[in-house]
Amino acid sequence: MTTSQLLEQIKIKKSFLCVGLDVDLNKIPPHLLATEDPIFEFNKAIIDATHDLCVAYKPNTAFFEAYGIKGWQSLQRTIEYINANYPELFTIADAKRGDIGNTSSMYAKAFFEDLNFDSVTVAPYMGKDSVEPFLAFENKHTIMLALTSNEGAFDFQTLSVNGIELYKQVLETSKSWKNSHNLMYVVGATKAEYFTEIRKIVPDSFLLVPGVGAQGGSLSEVCKYGLNSQVGLLINSSRAIIYASNKEDFAEVARAEALKMQQEMEEILRLNV
Question: Membrane-spanning regions, if any (predicted)?
Fold first, then answer.
């Protein structure tokens, strides 16, 4: 999917919501546990209930890998279901990969060719030769960790290195990498005060923003500092939507929560873009 196609979906749906699919068998409605593939059945119900309110889905691969080969098969069924039934949706493999060149090439092949995701999250710690293999795929996007929402982000990401905070150096350096136009960045919602500085470095890039909802991030604050003229934000919400209910009405309740966010986003877009 191209960036212009993603932007078109945002305009059509008046939404820049990304729904995170972090499926924990201990949290899903108990009646699904009797099905052959509880993870997929849960995802399918959430997707069918919310697809018209969001522009992206973000399966977190750890929540599938934890269940071995069956979990990986559930991930494959999930991405195939989205691509077959809702091909207009942007898909994100939240895998946070990052390794030396040959290994990164294999990771990229797995997510972009075999599973056919539109994008994958990566960690930039090992530098350009660990990220550029992902960037080589046409109309695929690499979403690089820039400033994350966890407490440990302050261990390294905001440290001053040669007079500049490390996350700023990462952003600046990444712009020089081959096919950097395929880059997006992860910036946590709990770091809303940093968005102004980030936009000075990457004014036109899309930012994937986790942390709104269960982690306490503010949608209005993120948009105040992070919106650009082309929206430029994908706001992820996982637990606040998918686990809003663990009863048989879970999909309907998830839709109600997604609708609240979509309506708030619609109002923000009306006033700002």
Answer: none
Q: Which of 227, 191, 194, 196 is nearest to 210 (CA)?
A: 191
Look up 224 and say whether it is catalytic. no
Phi, psi for 97 (deg, rounded to 5):
-80, 165
DSSP letters spanning 70-133: HHHHHHHHHHHHHHHH-TTSEEEEEEEE---HHHHHHHHIIIIIIS--SEEEE--TT-HHHHHH
The answer to whether the CB of 92 falls within 8 A of the CB of 120 is: yes
Residue 32, pLDDT score:
98
Cα atoms in the 13 Å half-sphere on the side-chain side of 72: 8
Say what the pTM is: 0.96
Three-state secondary-structure class, residue 221: helix
Domains of the chain are 3-271 (3.20.20.70)
Q: Are the CB atoms for 93 and 63 separated by under 8 Å? A: no
For the cut 60, the answer to whether the pLDDT of residue 214 exceeds it is no
> Would you report the helix, strand and coil content of the chain in percent, each value rounded to 5?
50, 20, 30
Comparing CA positions, the residue from 115, 111, 26 lying closest to residue 63 is 26
Q: Which residue in 11, 14, 96, 109 is the catalytic one?
A: 96
Task: Answer for the pair 188, 148: CB distance below 8 angstroms, yes or no.
Answer: yes
